Every structure is written in C-alpha cells, then in structure tokens.
Amino acid sequence: MFRTHTCGELRLSNQNENVTLAGWVQTIRDKGSILWIDLRDRYGITQITLVENKTPAELFETARSLGREFVIQVSGKVAERESKNPKLPTGEIEVWAEKIAILNPAEVPPFKIEDETDGGDDLRMKFRYLDLRRNIVRKNLELRHKMAQETRKYLDSQYFIEVETPVLIKSTPEGARDFVVPSRMNQGQFYALPQSPQTFKQLLMVAGFDRYYQIVKCFRDEDLRADRQPEFTQIDCEMSFVEQEDVLQMFEGLIRHLFRSVKGIEIPTLPRMSYEEAMRLYGSDKPDTRFEMKFTEITHLAKGKGFQVFDNAEIVVGICAKGCAEYTRKQLDELTEFVKKPQIGAKGLVYVQCKADGSFKSSVDKFYTQDDLRTWAEAMQAQAGDLLLILSGETAKTRKQLSELRLEMGTRLGLRDKNKFSCLWVIDFPAFEYDEEAGRWFAMHHPFTSPKPEDITFLQNGELGKVRANAYDMVINGTEVGGGSIRIFDKNLQAKMFEVLGFTAEQAEKQFGFLMNAFRYGAPPHGGIAFGFDRLCAIFSGADSIRDFIAFPKNNSGRDVMIDAPSEIFQEQLEELGIRLVKNKQL
Amino acid sequence: MFRTHTCGELRLSNQNENVTLAGWVQTIRDKGSILWIDLRDRYGITQITLVENKTPAELFETARSLGREFVIQVSGKVAERESKNPKLPTGEIEVWAEKIAILNPAEVPPFKIEDETDGGDDLRMKFRYLDLRRNIVRKNLELRHKMAQETRKYLDSQYFIEVETPVLIKSTPEGARDFVVPSRMNQGQFYALPQSPQTFKQLLMVAGFDRYYQIVKCFRDEDLRADRQPEFTQIDCEMSFVEQEDVLQMFEGLIRHLFRSVKGIEIPTLPRMSYEEAMRLYGSDKPDTRFEMKFTEITHLAKGKGFQVFDNAEIVVGICAKGCAEYTRKQLDELTEFVKKPQIGAKGLVYVQCKADGSFKSSVDKFYTQDDLRTWAEAMQAQAGDLLLILSGETAKTRKQLSELRLEMGTRLGLRDKNKFSCLWVIDFPAFEYDEEAGRWFAMHHPFTSPKPEDITFLQNGELGKVRANAYDMVINGTEVGGGSIRIFDKNLQAKMFEVLGFTAEQAEKQFGFLMNAFRYGAPPHGGIAFGFDRLCAIFSGADSIRDFIAFPKNNSGRDVMIDAPSEIFQEQLEELGIRLVKNKQL
C-alpha cells in the first residue's frame, strides 16, 4: 500500500499515529537544524517535519536532494504543530518523518504550480497536465464533476432516463459545418459527428421513452471565436406529452437545484420576457438583468427639431446611467470611441448630463431647448446627477449598439458582479430569420421547432417574419445557457417547414426522411431543451472563459498543442479510406 | 397539461378521481355494448372503458376509428374493475372515458409492438424507433441507465471524479484501426477518434487527479465481427498511488455494488487465477467458471502405446463430461463434427465411455487396454457413467480447441445458466505476444502496461515471452468484462518498452512524446481498468448480443440503416477539407 492517508486527511485526533503519505513536493524550507516539506495531493497539503538529532541524519540528505514536484512517499508519526496554520484543514498537525522514498524525481517545471503562475497561455496549454495540477484549475473540473452529478441526480428524480445516442451519424446541410469521418467499409461515404442529438432524441420520444437526457459531446467545425471549442458538451433533454409551460417548470427546477446544491444559493422564480420585449428593453435576446438600465425610446420626443441625425433615424433610444452626470470630457469621449468601434458600428453618441441644479447639458444643445431635454429626462426617469446616453438609426442595429453600450456602462459601474446571478426565460422567439447575404429564410432555432398555433396562418401565407415559435432560452447574467422548443410532431407540418426553408421534397426526404417517416407511426407531442454545459460551469464559477472548465481544450486553431493533434496520417490509412489529399498549390 | 397521471400510476386508491392520461393504443377490444382500450406509455398500461348508455355515443365512434399505436389523450373517472388483472400494477382499476382526443394517428406499424414480435432483424433496425417501443427492448436500456447510475454512485462514493477527455485526438499506429477526421482548419491533417482515453487518463494521474473515471464512447474501425460495434462505451478508470491489489479490491467493490443494487445478488469474493492456470485448466484466458469440467493433461499416460496421433502430439488433454457415458453414436459424431469445424480446427476427437459396469469403451480401443483407460479415467477423476473427451496436438492450439468443446458440453448439459453469475480475476498476463504473421512482438495489453519487477531482467535480455505484466482481467461467465494494468510511470522504462515493440526513438517521440515528457515532471505510480459497458449490461441481463443494449446500433457493415449513414457528402465539403475521393476502378 502506497499510503495510509491522503494529504488532506490528518487532524489532531490522529496524533501519535504512524502514517504513510504520498504526493508531490510543493515547497521545502530548510532552516539547517529543522526542515519542512509541504507535501501535496488532490486532497490537500500536509507538513512533513525533519528535526536535527530527532530525525535520522540520512533523511536530511534525502530531503535536501528533493526538488519541486518530486513524487515521494513519507512515513512517520503525526504530531501537534508548534505554530498552527488555521488556513489549512491539516494545519494543526505535522508528520515527523521517519522514512522518505523518492517514487519519481521531477525536472523543474516550466512554470510555477501555484494559483498565481508565471506561465503564459501557450506554455500552460502545452504542459496542460502541469497546469491541471494548479488548485485553481483542478477546482474548476471538480465543480464540473459536481454540476454533472447534481444534474443527473435531479433528472433521475424526475424519471428521466439517460440514453446514449450515436456519435457516428449522418451529415446534414442545415446549421453549422459538420466534422466528417470517412468510412473504410463504405468507401466514398462519410459519417458526421453530431452537432447535437436533436433527431435522435425526437426519435426516442416517438419510441415512447417519455423523458430522456444525456450529458453528451457535440461537435461543430466552425472558425473558432474567442471562446468556442470544436467539441463541447451539452445537457440534452427531451420530454413527451408536454407544453412549453411543463418544460419551463421542469428546467427551472433543474437550475434551481444546481444553484442550491452547488452554490448554496436560492434563486427567485425566473421572470419570463418575450423576445420582442427583450429586444425593445435591452437590445438583446440574452439580456444581462443583473442591473436595470433599460432602454427608453424617445423617437417621438427627439424628432422634428432640426437635428438631421435624429430626424432621419428610424429610432432614437437611450439609457440612463445613474450618477454619471459628472463624467469628464475624457470619459464621454471614451464612450463615443467605444460605440464607434467597428465591431459595434455606431456613427456617434448623444449624451445629456442632468446637472445637480436641474439644468441639462448635452452634445446637441444647439438643436434642443432645456425643456426638450427635460422631456427626454422625464421619459427616461432620470434624476439630477444622471447621464443619458442616446443612439439613433435603423431599429435593429441601433438596439444592438445600445445593448453593447449598456453592458459597457454596467461593467464600468460595477453592476456585473460575477458572484451575483440573475436568471430569466426569454420566450416567444421568431420562428425564422432572414439572412440578407444568403437571400433566404433560416430557422432561428432549428427546423423541428413548432410555430405557435395562432401564427400558423402566417406560415401558410408565407409571412415568415410574423411567425413566432414555441421556443425559449434560459439566460443567466447576459449569457444564453440553454435553449429549446416544443417540436413539430405532425409530418405534414414538418414537411411544410422544410418547404419554406427551401428544401426540395427530395432533399427533405434524403436528409430527414427517417424522422418524417417516424412521425407516421404515432409521434407524441414533445419538446425539450439543451444546456451548454461548459458555459454553465463557467458561469457558476464566475469565469469568462469555458477553456478552463475543459480538461484538455483546443486552441483557437482547433489544435491540441499538448498531443499535437490534428496531425498527418500514413499513406496506407488514406488508401484504405479511398481518399487522397489535394495539395495546396500555394504552399 | 397533457396528462394528470401516467399509464402506470393509477391504483384503487384513486377511485372516483377525474384523470387525464395520454399514450399509445396497445389494443382495442370491441364487444359492441362495451369497448376497452389498453392505453400504453413507458410506465405501464391502463384500461380505458366505454359502456353503452353510460359513455357518450360519439366517443364510441372516435374509439372505433382508432388503430394500433394511435397517440390519444383520454379523460375520465377512475373506477374499480369488475374483473381484475393481478398481472398489471394498474389491474384493479379502469378509466371510464368521458373524452378522447386523437393527438396523432398512426399507420399500421411494419411489425408487432410486442415482446414476441413478427419483425425480422433488418426491419426492426430500420424502424428502430418502433422496436424501442417494445417492452423488452426498452427494459434493456432502462437497465443500462440503472447500471450507469449505480456505477457513478459507487465511484463517486470512492472519491473518483468524472473528467471528460477529448474525442478529437491524435492517430496512433498501435492497436486497432483509428477512425480519422479530416481537419478543415489544418488541411492535410487529421484528428483520430479515441480507441480509449488511455493516455489522457494517465496524464490526469500526472496532473494529480488521483482517482478518475468516465463513462465514455470509444471507437474502433475494425471489420465487425458478429457482436462488435464501431462505437462502444467504456467505464474507464484510473487511480494513483496504487498497486495491483488496490485496483482489484476497488473494482471488485464496483462489481459487487452493481450486482447488489441492480440484480439484488450478493456475489462471493472473486477468485484469482493466473493466466497460466487459466490456460492450463480451461484453455482460455476468460474461463466460464459457472461449471467445472477442468482440463486434465494425460500426455504421459497416453504416449508410447503405438497410437501415432498421441505419440506425435505435444499434449494430450481431456475433459470429463459427467453422466454422458451413454451418449449415442450420433451424439458422439456430432461432437467430432463440432471440433472439426474450420473455426475450431481439431483433426479428430477421442472419447472414452466409462460404463456402469466399470468397463471402458473408447474410440482408440485397439491401442489402449482397459487398464490404460482406467489410468486416464482416474487422472480425470471420472466415475462410472462419465464420458472422457480427449484432444491432442500442439499445446496452445489443442487447449483452445478443447476450450470450445468444454463450452459446447457446458451448453449441452445446461451448465451455463444465464441467471447464474460466476466472476473471477485472471492475473499475471504475459506482457507480450508474438504475432507470427507480422513477425514481431506486440504488447498483449498495451505498451503502457508495467512488467512485473521480477521479470524486468527478461525484458532487458530480450526474452520477451517470459515477461509477465501487472495486468488483470475481470471475467464473468466466460466473457472478459474489464481489463487493466498497473502502468509504467518511469520514462526510461517506457522508452525501453517502445523500443522492444519496434518503435524507433523518433516514432516513439512523435506518437507518445507528450506522455514520456509528462513522466519527466513527477508522475505518480498509477494503474487502472476499463470495463466494456455494453457487454457488461448484456451479461447482467443474461443476453448474448450487445446490440439490444445500444439505443441506435449499427449493423455488421457499420451502417445505421435507420438514418442511412454513412452517406455521400457534398463536393464543397470535400473541397473545404482538401480531400478528394479515389474512385474505385472496379465499380
């Protein structure tokens, strides 16, 4: 046996016991006549002590040959410490070493294995197994484990059963790009890796499984933005004989259970906000509701006073930043620069400072009287000391720009506390969105989402923009953590859906024939939801990036730099698969 | 709300309640003045009753328009049944229909949705979502869910943490064929799908995770034998600071927990058998120990009496089939035919019937006296009434042949009861096996398995056949359900291992450099195990095939015939990936 206890286990009650520990050398402090080793494992740190004249001399020699991250085994007696460390659970004791064995030496690690490390991102990714030794990173993965456990516990208690769906499936043209897998046994054909188990979970409903879930890897071959990964994990769920209300209740229950069991937090009932309202009040379908600062439209108040910019705008809309009236010229310029950044794209920013004396100072003073500005301030429920920030232009774009500015102001004002959680449902999404570039309609959620019954006439008429869907997103702190819908379960409606999305009957049959076929044999009403598990873990931890919640993530080029994947394969492998590389002539 | 109760929920205590159920029409019995519908969902069956003069007439009309597998919603009052059905949990009540809504009609399914179905394999695979409706198939997947739940419960209680390892990894030449995934962002390069998370779990040990597990999909692109799947699931585990004994104890605990919690069975302590002993006594490294019938070698007794076949054999070995002395000529011929089948490959079978009167009758009577045969019978502990079955030839082949014959006899004698479970550990496996065809040594388990310390000199000398490994398999009822080993954690020993396996230093570095590198920074002693989860579920259920424990399995050509995958992809997809198909000229 390598150890009798872990490094996080010994207490004063173990005094005088003979124990054996094993772990990594965190630090060595050598005072000549006395030497301490901090021995670390996943469970904690225990102080090992060597004292001149009490500890065999050769142990000092061994101890002095140790370096950081050596793996050692220590036997000795548990003793009460003279100077206790109340910060450590093991801080009341130390182990008086009687035997030290070096299990494996270690070279000096390329960066410090501490919470505050000196290693850069690239180095830490290359030596991920060392980065994972850091408490802070390991704790993220322990949180993830706990989240998965508690998710399963809740869903099991609600009679969901976990079913594994296949990873080698069929490529479909809709949605993001598939990763494909050439088949050796069926040369010239390919499997695809699933972007989600969507159709399989619907088939499980047709199969009568009633309540399904799976914590499952999904795959998207997209150009990786800052915080995307080519493989990611979903909590994927589906229920039969449900309406939207049933699904919202069930998964509000899940998120409440997770906050309670993982964070010890009771969250209030989730407010529900329509997509229309979210866009109107926050300019976003995933509003950060940790703070108010809602939009106020002042189009009718601002037009007709000779200020061309507003006069020509479809919308004039602003936010009220509490207590910011005294922003300096420099601060105001920064905000203007912010909204003019290419990724935001506003032409300019109008501000109104509501002075302490009741007067107003604005960047458009030559067009508007004090009375004009007072009507704006009143509409925006501003008080003396507040700052109004106003954008104008085409409705959708302007709202999006103001949403960014709102978030920026929230950050500047410290209103986006990572330890505070504000959850809500956004509902009544449009069923379709028009892609100007592609010149066609796409399903906003996916082609299996049912339209609201009252909007089906719009679907029949081809007024796709007016069709709302039985779709819903769960939003926490301005991030969409999950989304789902009530599905179509009628084969004719599903066929109609594919038709308006531009599929020919043949294409629909070829790609999704199996699903529409399944609907012929008694499909129950059903709906579900999928949560982005990596993201959910990051939010629970108050972190920005999902990368530190994935044990072995890939970088922005989709590479695993630790194992050096992807990599070239052997010519024989290509031949067996019946494929050939097209050499890039520019190389 | 679609339902107030499920179809498995109502009892006599619900009498007179107004309820709403939803589900599938299992059967309709129409007696004219009274009509019953058996309504089915995942949870059970409830009898819906319509009675003339009590039920509104139009409900009869609706009910008579229903067909098998229609999805309906029924509201009504719970009443006590006149003729109760004690076989059904809901058998004491029925629901007097007051309202019936057809939620979705159904075409006549292509086969019966019953335990005994009339659908052939191919048809049931194509309509898998209907096959899954059958109780018998759904129960398999419910068992699987329960097995996964209980596995997690046990491992969680032992401080294991579940960590997800990547699916897009690096192709390695050792082992079975990899499925590969062409990279779009890194054209000309490929990811591979993991055959197991072996190196990642070892890196997690280097990272100090101490106890890891994962229920995880793995992939092998092999020609599919009868009961293999290209994607399969493992319970993958690894522990640090352990010796073989620690691992065996821990996972004996897991299997005991599973038998107890899933089957209600207390299994005895698992016997341990060395590989050498298993081969000697059962001719197999996965002996079916539900029955004895061990091998007895009678080489020394059988040689030198002029029977050329035995005289020229390396080994003469037999089994004693209790009570089979009176096998007919036809039965004995069948056994001879059996061992001569090409896949078994014996040249012939020698038998000795131990007659009730103490005499012997054998197929080699002209070479052996009654006394000769008596020495055989005594060696094999045979009694009057028993039948000795004897094979001879080259040791390894003969043992293998006799193993097949032993299993055949076990089956014929009804000794392989699927509801009886016999578990054991097979230990002390050889580290290497020689592949005559390839003309080289391969790692029997894998190249990361540590040799037994006392056999390391053989490794240094190149006497690879003598090196035993710290490797172990768990065997249940003649099937290997799990296997593992204590790993190498010393970089020099690992390098030596790659060397004797024929890797050049460059190849080893290129393929496994990251692992050997990791060993430089303080790798702890570690070891682990992986269980074949699909197989384990099948064995627990007493089933032969894993296919019915996988929701959406593939056929023997690796195809999913339901969704029709793999399939062709678009030319643009190929171009984006920088690959081209090599057309098969024979087509």
Automatic annotation (TrEMBL), chains A, B:
<dbReference type="InterPro" id="IPR047089">
    <property type="entry name" value="Asp-tRNA-ligase_1_N"/>
</dbReference>
<dbReference type="InterPro" id="IPR004365">
    <property type="entry name" value="NA-bd_OB_tRNA"/>
</dbReference>
<dbReference type="GO" id="GO:0005524">
    <property type="term" value="F:ATP binding"/>
</dbReference>
<dbReference type="InterPro" id="IPR004524">
    <property type="entry name" value="Asp-tRNA-ligase_1"/>
</dbReference>
<dbReference type="GO" id="GO:0006422">
    <property type="term" value="P:aspartyl-tRNA aminoacylation"/>
</dbReference>
<feature type="binding site">
    <location>
        <position position="229"/>
    </location>
    <ligand>
        <name>ATP</name>
    </ligand>
</feature>
<dbReference type="InterPro" id="IPR004115">
    <property type="entry name" value="GAD-like_sf"/>
</dbReference>
<protein>
    <recommendedName>
        <fullName>Aspartate--tRNA ligase</fullName>
        <ecNumber>6.1.1.12</ecNumber>
    </recommendedName>
</protein>
<comment type="subunit">
    <text>Homodimer.</text>
</comment>
<keyword id="KW-0963">Cytoplasm</keyword>
<comment type="similarity">
    <text>Belongs to the class-II aminoacyl-tRNA synthetase family. Type 1 subfamily.</text>
</comment>
<dbReference type="InterPro" id="IPR004364">
    <property type="entry name" value="Aa-tRNA-synt_II"/>
</dbReference>
<feature type="binding site">
    <location>
        <position position="480"/>
    </location>
    <ligand>
        <name>ATP</name>
    </ligand>
</feature>
<dbReference type="GO" id="GO:0004815">
    <property type="term" value="F:aspartate-tRNA ligase activity"/>
</dbReference>
<comment type="function">
    <text>Catalyzes the attachment of L-aspartate to tRNA(Asp) in a two-step reaction: L-aspartate is first activated by ATP to form Asp-AMP and then transferred to the acceptor end of tRNA(Asp).</text>
</comment>
<dbReference type="GO" id="GO:0005737">
    <property type="term" value="C:cytoplasm"/>
</dbReference>
<dbReference type="InterPro" id="IPR047090">
    <property type="entry name" value="AspRS_core"/>
</dbReference>
<feature type="binding site">
    <location>
        <position position="174"/>
    </location>
    <ligand>
        <name>L-aspartate</name>
    </ligand>
</feature>
<dbReference type="Pfam" id="PF01336">
    <property type="entry name" value="tRNA_anti-codon"/>
</dbReference>
<feature type="binding site">
    <location>
        <position position="220"/>
    </location>
    <ligand>
        <name>L-aspartate</name>
    </ligand>
</feature>
<keyword id="KW-0030">Aminoacyl-tRNA synthetase</keyword>
<feature type="binding site">
    <location>
        <position position="487"/>
    </location>
    <ligand>
        <name>L-aspartate</name>
    </ligand>
</feature>
<keyword id="KW-0648">Protein biosynthesis</keyword>
<feature type="binding site">
    <location>
        <begin position="220"/>
        <end position="222"/>
    </location>
    <ligand>
        <name>ATP</name>
    </ligand>
</feature>
<dbReference type="InterPro" id="IPR002312">
    <property type="entry name" value="Asp/Asn-tRNA-synth_IIb"/>
</dbReference>
<keyword id="KW-0067">ATP-binding</keyword>
<dbReference type="InterPro" id="IPR006195">
    <property type="entry name" value="aa-tRNA-synth_II"/>
</dbReference>
<keyword id="KW-0436">Ligase</keyword>
<dbReference type="Pfam" id="PF00152">
    <property type="entry name" value="tRNA-synt_2"/>
</dbReference>
<dbReference type="Pfam" id="PF02938">
    <property type="entry name" value="GAD"/>
</dbReference>
<feature type="binding site">
    <location>
        <position position="445"/>
    </location>
    <ligand>
        <name>L-aspartate</name>
    </ligand>
</feature>
<feature type="binding site">
    <location>
        <begin position="532"/>
        <end position="535"/>
    </location>
    <ligand>
        <name>ATP</name>
    </ligand>
</feature>
<feature type="domain" description="Aminoacyl-transfer RNA synthetases class-II family profile">
    <location>
        <begin position="141"/>
        <end position="553"/>
    </location>
</feature>
<dbReference type="InterPro" id="IPR029351">
    <property type="entry name" value="GAD_dom"/>
</dbReference>
<keyword id="KW-0547">Nucleotide-binding</keyword>
<dbReference type="InterPro" id="IPR012340">
    <property type="entry name" value="NA-bd_OB-fold"/>
</dbReference>
<dbReference type="GO" id="GO:0003676">
    <property type="term" value="F:nucleic acid binding"/>
</dbReference>
<dbReference type="InterPro" id="IPR045864">
    <property type="entry name" value="aa-tRNA-synth_II/BPL/LPL"/>
</dbReference>
<feature type="region of interest" description="Aspartate">
    <location>
        <begin position="198"/>
        <end position="201"/>
    </location>
</feature>
